[in-house]
Every structure is written in structure tokens, then in C-alpha cells.
Amino acid sequence: MIKNVIFDCFGTLIDTGTGSMDAVRSILTNVNLNVDADEFYSEWKIKKKEMTYFDEFYSEKELFKMSLAEMFKKYNVTADIDEAVQPMIRVLFGERKAFPDTAEILEYLDKAGINYAIGSTTDNDSLIHFLHMNNLSIPLVFTSEDMRVYKPVPDFYTKILEKTGWKYEETLFVGDNLVDDVKGPKSVGMRSALIDRKGRYSNNSGIKPDFVFNSLKELKSIIK
Predict the structure, then answer these.
(1) What are the angstrom distances between the C-alpha of 193 and each of 144, 196, 212, 219?
(2) Most Cβ neighbours (<10 Å): which of 106, 193, 200, 203?
(3) What count of other Cβ atoms lies within 10 Å of the Cβ of residue 148?
(4) 63: Cα within 13 Å, side-chain hemisphere
(5) Distance, CA of 180 to CA of 186 (rounded, Å)
(6) Distance (Å, rounded) from C-alpha 160 to C-alpha 119?
(7) Long-range contacts of 108-113 (CB under 8 A, 24+ apart)
(8) Which residue(s) pair with 119 in the sheet?
(9) Tens of pLDDT along the chain (224 residues)?
(10) Using CA atoms, how far apart are residues 165 and 219, in angstroms rounded to an integer?
């Protein structure tokens, strides 16, 4: 029986939109680097993700700066990194709207008496900014900055359960990323639901969610 739900935030409750790609294009223009923006950002995200496994913890803002510096080295770009990264930092405090099904499912969980929280790999101030912008009142919010660890490291999930007192087998993790929101939670004994809004999930991925939904509304069937 599911008594508790932990939601990823961005891409699950709140739409990330095109802000990040717009920021990448702006950065490339500002430093006069003529490369494919999608490929650049894909590699940038990989470098940023690799840095989350460092022994020392760094905030998301710091990681964006450090990983961009590595990208500039690769492309022989000479620029002030603090200034160059600003378009992406502004995205962390920009405008992102909640998905239309977010308010409905949270209201349903409240009425059903189901505990819920957010578990997000981001900085506190950025997450709170977007929650306030969308008038979302979440009883429990856990960030990587709080816990000094990023998904999919097992400690990210176990620390949330330790803080809440929730049981692994009674808790469902809901998110849009196969590794961070499915493989990670399942590695510590939690069940997982993948929100696949664009229908891109393939059974051949090797990572098997317990549930795959196109909308948060479909969570109602599980709770029942």
C-alpha cells in the first residue's frame, strides 16, 4: 500500500520550458563560439553530472560554473566564467510554470490523506523561488543542497526516508528521469513511477519503472 509520495520537481511538477536552451544559445553568442547548441548543452550536462560525484559537495550554481569552465577549455574559449555563466544562473530564478495536472494531484493527495514531499537535485533558493511563483504549498521539501548529495546516489533517497520516518515499501518516488527517479529509488527498495509526458519511454532501456504514466492524474489509480 502506498502511503507516501516523493515527487521530483522540474519536469515532473514544474515545466522547465526552453529556458536552459535559450541560455545556452545566449552563452555561445556572447563568447562567439559557433557550435551546435544542442550538442554543446548535452555535453555540458554530462560534465555537470560527473561533478556531482566529487567527494566535496558543490551547489548547482557552482556546478554550472565549474562545468562550463571545462567546456570552455575544450573549445579553447577565453572568457570571464563568472560573467559567461550568468544566462544559465538567471534561468534558476526565472519563470517556470507548473504543469496543469500538478495542482489537481496535490489536492487529491491532500483529500486522500497521503503524505507527500519534493526530492529535487537543486539549490534551496531556486526551488523555493519556483514554488512561490506557482503558489505551490508543499509540506516537505528536500534538496541536494539540504542533504549535500545528488541523485542517484542512494544517500539522497535514504536521507529523505530517515528524516520523514516513512517506510521504503510504502513510499513511491515520482519523476521524469529514468536514472534519477527510477533506478535510484529502486536501488534502496522504493517503488517508482515514471512520468513520460511525451511518450518516449522504451521497455528496452534496461531500467524498469513500477509504473509509467503520461500524466500525474494517473497516480489516482495507484492511490486507490
Answers:
(1) 20, 9, 6, 9
(2) 193
(3) 14
(4) 24
(5) 10
(6) 8
(7) 108/219, 108/220, 108/223, 109/5, 109/223, 112/223
(8) 142
(9) 899 999 999 999 999 999 999 999 999 999 999 999 999 999 999 999 999 999 999 999 999 999 999 999 999 999 999 999 999 999 999 999 999 999 999 999 999 999 999 999 999 999 999 999 999 999 999 999 999 999 999 999 999 999 999 999 999 999 999 999 999 999 999 999 999 998 888 776 788 999 999 999 999 998 86
(10) 22
Question: Which burial class, exposed, middle or buried, applies to 56 when counting CB atoms under 10 A from its CB (0-12, 13-18, 19+)?
Answer: exposed
Cell numbers representing residue 77 in the block? 574559449
Q: Which helix (H) or strand (E) holds 212?
A: strand 211-213
SS3 call for 178: helix
Q: Are 96 and 14 in contact (CB under 8 A)?
A: yes
- Look-up of cell digits 496535490: 106
The whole-angstrom separation of Cα 185 and Cα 176 is: 13
Give the burial class of 24: count Cβ atoms within 10 A of its Cβ; 0-12 exposed, 13-18 middle, 19 or more buried: buried
Taken in order 55, 60, 63, 65, the sign of the CA dihedral is negative
Lookup: cell for 114 = 497521503
